[in-house]
Amino acid sequence: MFTLLSKILALSVAYRWLVVVLTLAVGALGVYSFTRLPIDAVPDITNVQVQINTPVKALAPVEVERRITFPIEATLGGLPNVEQVRSLSRYGLSQVTVVFEDGTDIYWARQLVNERLSEAKEALPPGLAEPRMGPIATGLGEIYLWTVEADPKARRPDGKPYDITDLRTLQDWVIRPQVRTVPGVTEVNSIGGFERLFQVSPDPAKLMSYGLSFGDLLTALAANNANAGAGYIERRGEQYLVRATGLLRGDDDIRNVLVGRHDGVPIRIADVGEVVVGRELRTGAATKDGRETVIGTAIMLLGENSRAVSTRVAERMAEVNKSLPSGVKAKTVYD
Prior knowledge:
alpha+beta; Alpha-Beta Plaits; 3 domains; 4-stranded antiparallel β-sheet; 10 helices; 37% helix
């Protein structure tokens, strides 16, 4: 032992410059590795799970459990590596969570659940609900939150101040698409505000006087809100595409939709009801400093580093603010 140690010391003294270079190289490698060390805020210890969310309208929790949640749970029985299946039934929502054994590949688990969902859809009431899997994330995936706020002096192009509906529209159609493209972000959720809707309020008495029903009104709206292709016309060696444009662009287009005819006279929606820009019904809200606001949440992809992903989201938010109207900003509230 002492002989080996003596040889090592003798070689170190004989080749002292080489030892110094190797020591400096190892130190530089250590410094480089330290700068590249993936530091995470909170280690994710969530089990492997797949959530199935089914939005349901106009059903009480008892009916949601009976007609939506139970058929989905029954269909998921017998999947391999499953530890438990739990569910939650609320007004307007059915949520089924499938927990797999630790170490199960999440993508393999989602593939199994997706195959069973095709069977579950056959057992659900047609046209009532459409089950879909949740994002590839966990309970610790909410890594970045922001609010959409407008200066009291800011005005829309029509001169009116921005309201909570306008801020929700900017969140859904301007901010959310840009944040979803950030690497490591699997979903962006919106909370608060009102979703803008074009609402048709028919007058039952007018419908009956023209011999029409609510079904005729729904069919007319669906049939008159689509584009259609009609091939092409060849002329002088060139192709001219033919298409019929029928997408509705505003409330005036909705008012002019043809519902039917009465004694040869066209009956439009404006003749049997009113068309207004309204708001979707909701069951919750978001507040900041005691005032209602709109909150956006970036959900991290399972297995990503929260510190790195939140940094990328913060960089993207700086670009997002440049695309917002003057006086409207997305302010970070949690990073």
